[in-house]
Protein 1
Amino acid sequence: MSAVPNTIFSPELAARFDKLVMLYPARRSALIPMLLYAQDEIGAVNDAVIAEIAQRIGITELDVRNVISYYSLLHTKPHGKYHVQVCTNISCMLRGGNEMLEHCKSRLGIGNKETTSDGLFSLEEVECIGACCWAPAVQVNYDFHDNLTPDKMDSVLEIYRQKASAR
Amino acid sequence: MPELVSHPEEVKVISRRWGQGAADIDKYIELGGYASLRKAVENGPEWVINEMKASGLRGRGGAGFPTGMKWSFVPKQIEKPKYVLVNGDESEPGTCKDHLIFLHDPHAVIEGTMIAGLAIGAKTGFIYLRGEYRYLIEIMERALAQAYERGILGKNIFGSGFDFDAISHTGAGAYEVGEESALMESLEGKRGVPRIKPPFPAVVGLYGGPTVINNAETIASVAPIIEMGGAAYAKIGTERNGGTRLFGISGHVNRPGVYELPMGYNLKKMIYEVAGGIPNGKALKAVVPGGASCPILRADEIDVGMDFDQMGKAGTMLGSAGVVVLDETVSIVKFALRTIKFYQHESCGWCIPCREGTDWLKKTMTRFYEGYGTSKDIDNMRYLAENMLGRTFCPLGDAAAMPMIGFFKKFRRV
C-alpha cells in the first residue's frame, strides 16, 4: 500500500517513490528525480502530478512549480510520443547540427517545439547533450543517436514510426 | 553507443578498462578494481590525503583546484554528517568525457567516491548525473546494486568498521547545476541557483554538513592514484599538473573522440597527429581548447602544452579539456553567436550582470550576424563582457564573458 492512497501512479512507481523520499537526509532531495520519473510515466508534469508529488514530499504545489520552471527536461504539457531533440551547440553545429534540425523540420512537417498532428513526434532544438565527439547527435526521448547524416536520421525516425505501429 | 578511439600516444590510466565490460563488477574486480579501496582502508585517511596531494591531481571540472588540498580543508572535528558529491552534470559544450566514464567504468566512480569518503570522514556519497544521461544512470544504479550485493558498499567494509552508502541521482536539464553550490541546491530539490561563498562547501555544504564536490573525472582518477602512488601519477604529467587528462576532440578533425593523454600534451600534435588533422585538406582557423567557456586560440597559437598553467599563460584555460576544432570555413560571428546563445539560455537569472549581460550580448551579436552590426557594437559588447567578469555569484557570468572577449581580441576585423 502506497504512502499516498488513490495515487495516480502505477503501483511500481508509487512504491519507488515511497522509497525515494526516505533515501536522502531530506525528503525534498527526491523532488527532481520524482518529477522526471513521473513525467516519463504520465507524459508531462501536469496538475495532478504536481499535486501528488507536493503531498508526498510535504511542500506546497507552488514550491514544486517553482522547481519545474527551472529545469529544461521538465514540461507541463505533453510532448509527442517520441521527442526528437536536436543539438545545435558548437561541436554539433560544426558537423551539421543546424542542417539536421532543418532536415527534421521538413521530414516531420513541424517547427521547433511543435508536435505532429498524430502526436507521434515532437521536435526541439536543444543545448549540448554531451555527445560532442560523435556529432551531430540527436536524442529521441532518452536514446542517443550519434554521427548522424540526413539519411541516417530518416532511418532513425522510421524505426520509431515502426515501433509505434507495432503496438 | 558512442565509438571508442585509440592512439599509440595515449597513456591509459582512467580509460584502461573502457570497452572491456567493466560496468559489471566481476570484470571490474578481475581488472584490479576495488583493490585501491582496500589499500586506502588499510592505510587510513591521512595517508590517502597525502597520496592525493603528492599526485598533483587538479580538479577536472575546469577550475583546476588541487584535489588533495580540497579534501584536507574538510574540518576533522565536526559533529555534522559529511558528504561526497560527484559532479556528473557534464554540460560544458564540447565535453563528453564523463559520458564514457559512466558508460564503461561506473565502478571506478563508486570506488573513487568511497575513497574520498574515507579520506574526509563521510559516510554518504551522491553521484549526480545530468538527466539526459538516463541510460548511464541505469548503468550506475546496476553498478551500485552489485557493489551492495558484494558487501563493498554498506556497513563494515572489508571488516574495517568503515561504513559507506552511495546514491545515484538524476538532474533534469540545467547547465548551471554544474556549478558546485548550484549542484548542492539541485540535490536538495531546489532551483539550481548558486549560493553565496563563503561559507565554502568544505565547511557548510549539503544539508549544512561539510561536503567535498569533485568532477566525475577527478573521482575516477582517485583509485588509479591510490594504486600506483601519488608520486608515480604526478610523474606522468607536467610540473604542478599531475597525471593524464581525458581530451575530447570534436569539430573539424578526421578522428574526433576522447583520448587520454598526459597533462601538458602539445595541442598542435593533438589535433594533427592524435585526431588525424583537418578533413578535406582544409586549413585550421581556430581552436577552443577546453570547452565553450575558454577563450579561443588562433591557428598560429596552438603550439602549446595542454595543462592548467601553460594554457593560462597562453591567455586561455584548460577548462574541461573539450577541444573544439574550427576549420577555415567557419564564421567566427556565427560561432560566437551560438556560444553566447547557449550562455544566455543557461543563465539562471539570479544575478543581474549575468542575466542582462548574456541577453544583451546575444541581442547585439544577433544584429551583427544579420549584417546590421557596427564597429561601435563590438566596443559595446567588449565593454559589457569585461564588466561581467568577477561580478557574478558564480562563474557562469565569467564563462559567458571570457570566450566573447576572446573572439573580439582575436578576430576583430572592423
Protein 2
Amino acid sequence: MIDDTAQLTEAFAAHEHLAPNADDVLVKSREIARSIHRRRWAVRATGGAVLASGLVAGGIALPGRAGPAHANQTRVSVADSGSSSPSAAPSSATYTQAQDLAAYFAAGYDYADATKLATAWNETDINQVKADAGLRLLEGETLPVQPSGTPETPVNSDVSAFFAAGYTIADAQQLSKMWHVSTYQAKAKAGKELVNHEPVPIPPSGSSTSSGSATAAHVLTGSKASIAAKLTQAKVRALKNASVDSANPPADTQADQDRAAFFAAGYTYNDAVALGNLWHDSDPWQVKADAGQKLIDGQTLPIAPGSSPNPPAPPVTQTDKDVNAFFAAGYTYNDAVKLGKIWNDSSTYQVKADAGKKLLDGQTLPIAP
Amino acid sequence: MTFAEFAAARLPRLLRYAVVLTGDRDLAQDIVQEVLARAQVRWKRIERSDSPDAYVRRMVLNEYLSWRRTWTVRNVRAVGERLVDVSDRRSESRDYAQDVVENDELWNRLATLPRKQRAVLVLRYYEQLDDEEIAYLLGCAQVTVRSNASKALKALRLQSERQFITVAGEA
C-alpha cells in the first residue's frame, strides 16, 4: 500500500544510483551536437543557394565525422546551377576541415591547446579536436581553453602567405640579404607582396615554380590538392586567406578573398583605379573587393585584366620644386627645424619650401647645410 | 557560465533526475544526450536565461514526455524488467533491507504508469515541487496535475493490493 508519500520519495532516491556515467553521456552528446551543427550548416548552405539562384543542383553530404584523410573535403557541397543574378551567392557554402583548422590556428591555438581540449572533451583524435574547435570558433563560440599564442595578425598572415607560396627559410634568408632586413621581415615583406600580387625577386624553392617571379596567383591557381599536401599547419592558414573557391567564410575575411580573386584573375591596382572611375568609387581597396566578388559570382568586369596603364604622374608644383631645391643643396629635415626656429615658423614643410625658394633665387641661408 | 562549466557542475544531478523520471537507465542516457547536444548548440541563449539549470531540466522533462511513443509502449514492460535485473545484480553484493525491496517493487510499479502521471509524481515527490510549479512545467492546469497524481497513486495502490492478494492467495 502507498500509505505515505515518503515511500515514493524514498523509492526515487533509492534508484538515483542507476544514473548513467556522466563522461559517457558528455562524449556522446558532443557527437550529437556536431551532427546538429552539420545539419544546420547543410540547411544554411542549401537555403543560401536557393535564395541566390532559385535552383539547387547537387547533393548534401553529411559525414558523421570527417577524419584527417578528408582534410580538404568539403563537408557540404551544393552546386549552383548557374547564377543569373549579379548578387548571387557563391556556388558552395560551408566550411572545409582545412578552414576549420585554419580558424583554429588563426585564433592563436596550437597543438598543446588541442591536447588540453581533447582532455576536456574526452577525445583522442587531436586532429579532430582541432577541427571541431575551429568549427566552433567559426560559429562564434568560445572554447574552454585560452589560446597559448596570439591571434593571427596581418604581419604573420603575410608570413603564412610566404610559406603557402612554397618559399622556404632559405629563400627568406636570401631575400633578407637582398633587402638588408631581418629574415622575419623578409618573410613578411615577401608575403605581403605575394598577397598584393607583386613580384618577388626570387622564385620559391619549395614549389613547382622553376623560374621567374612568384605571385599570389601561384597559390590561387595551382593545384590546391598538391599544395595542401605540402602545407604545414601554418601554410593552411594562408591557404584559407587565399582560397576563393570556398564560400561562406567569416565576414571579416570575405573581402580579403574577394580581393585575392581580383588579383588572381590578373587584375592590378591600376585596373582597380580605372574601375573606380567607371563605378564612381574613389576607394580602390573597396573596388578590388567589389570586383573580386563579381568575378566569384561569374560576372565579367568592364575592363580586361592588366589593361590599365599607370596613372599619369601628378603635376609638379612650384612648392615641390622649392622643397626639392632645399634638399638638393644638401640641407636636411633637422636643418629645416633649425631654420624654423630662426624664422619663427612652426611649419617645417613651409620652411623647406621658403628656404628652397631663396636658394633658387640665389640667396644664401643663415645656416650651412 | 560556459557550457563546459555547466556540464561539469550539473550533469551528474541531471542524470539522476533523468533516470528517476524515465525509470530506465538507457532511456535516461539517450534523453540527456539529446538534450545536452541541443543545449550545447544554443548555449548562448540558454546562458542568458534566469536559470540555465532549470531550463535544461525542463528540456529533459519535455524530451521525456515527447519521446517516441512507440518506443515507450513497446518497451514499457522491458523497462521494469531491466530495472529489476539491475537491482537484482546489485542485490547480489548487498544485504538489502526489507524497505529497499519494497522500494524496488514500487519502482517497478512506477514503470507501468503513463509518462505524464509518472512525471507528476517525480516532480512532486522527487523534485519537491508544488502543484502550481508542476502545472507550469507541464503546461497544464493545477487541477490536471492533481488529477494525474490521483490516478497515478490509485494505480500504484491497486497494483500493490493486487500483488498483496496474489501473494496471500498463493500462501
